[in-house]
Automatic annotation (TrEMBL):
Ranges of residues in domain RNA polymerase sigma-70 region: 15-82
Lineage of producing organism: Bacteria, Pseudomonadati, Pseudomonadota, Betaproteobacteria, Burkholderiales
InterPro entries: DUF6596, RNA_pol_sigma70_r2, RNA_pol_sigma70_r4_t2, RNA_pol_sigma_r2, RNA_pol_sigma_r3/r4-like, WH-like_DNA-bd_sf
Protein name from the UniProt record: RNA polymerase sigma factor
Domain DUF6596, first and last residues per copy: 189-289
Pfam family name, one: DUF6596
Segments forming domain RNA polymerase sigma factor 70 region 4 type: 121-171
Amino acid sequence: MHITNHDITLTIDQLYRQSSRQLFATLVRLLGDFDLAEEALHEAFRAAIEKWPRQGIPENPHAWLVSAGRFKAIDGIRRNQRFTAWDEAEEQAENIADETPTWDVLQEQIMLEDDALRLVFTCCHPSLAFDAQVALTLREVCGLTTEEIASAFLLPAPTLAQRIVRAKSKIRDARIPYQVPDATELPARLSSVLRVIYLVFNEGYSASSGDMLTRGDLSNEAIRLARLLRELLPDQAEIMGLLALMLLHESRRAARVNLQNDLVPLDEQDRSLWNAELIAEGCALAEQALRTRQFGTYSLQAAISAVHAEASTSADTDWLQIVGLYDALFRLEPSSIVALNHAVAIAMRDGPAAGLALVNDLLQEESLQKYHLAHAAQADMYRRLARYQEAQFAYEQALALTKQGAEQRFLQKRIAEMCGLLAEN
């Protein structure tokens, strides 16, 4: 079959979209520098655009791109030697690993995935502040632009850019290695990595920026990274738990919003739209994680999601089991957010009056007074008790505290409903 230049261009474009961040991770390992690797990646793809139409697509395109990027970086260092000492430039060039991959496709994929994990652990190094870990992971592992990340976290782009620059400088100056930590360091490092991966997932699933509400690429990237971690540590319960939790959330993506991109509450979702394959995998992983008896908060959250997923209708939900799981979760993580979710479960098991008493007590805490979902939960319980004026006020408080467009529209709809019910009465 004759391959046209158009076909080659499409292939290069597909490679960039699907593999550029994995290739970047390998170049970071080979070159030892984020910025040099980024430049080398773009030079490699530029070389592919120039050469592949004449030479044809190489048998191993990933290896070709890695090799091209490496050579472009060496050429660049030597070309810029007039700005640095000759010995320093030559030493930097010679220190770049001489690795021209010749492996088959399977081994090549293993190489790329291993390098992706190395990059994740580097970006999540404990010497970096957590906000820097998140920003660096989103930029370097997931490939978001600085502007996208800044928008997602409601920060000025220059502020976010400086955060990333400082993190890269710290990695370079402290000579933080691009590697997965050894067995003695891994447990302490793992919690930070899992936390960042889950934040990346949530930024794609229910983003802090309304424009990113359905960034499925971010959620898929987080799931992919969790799968890689599980291959590295197949018996680690919290990796199973986090992967299960993300799969179960992801299974509901198609039902979370309607055609107008408005939020649909869990109890009103069309469950025929839920992804049965993801649910089956997530439930199996959650059960496996709990059986280890070494589970933590992600595993318990996954178990709660699994109970929801296994109910054929909202009315069939086993709220007794969910309350018990929240009790266990609160013992591991006695936070206000867990207590709020526990109160919501109590309201579903024992009625809205029981839940409302708990939520009203929790709203005495300053942190929850600024949390829109606490007011939304209170409002929903007032609504179910037909206390519409109090419900309206609570919904208005929730509305004032959220900037997500879909959530704002949902709350505005609820407020309008309360106004209508008050007018009828």
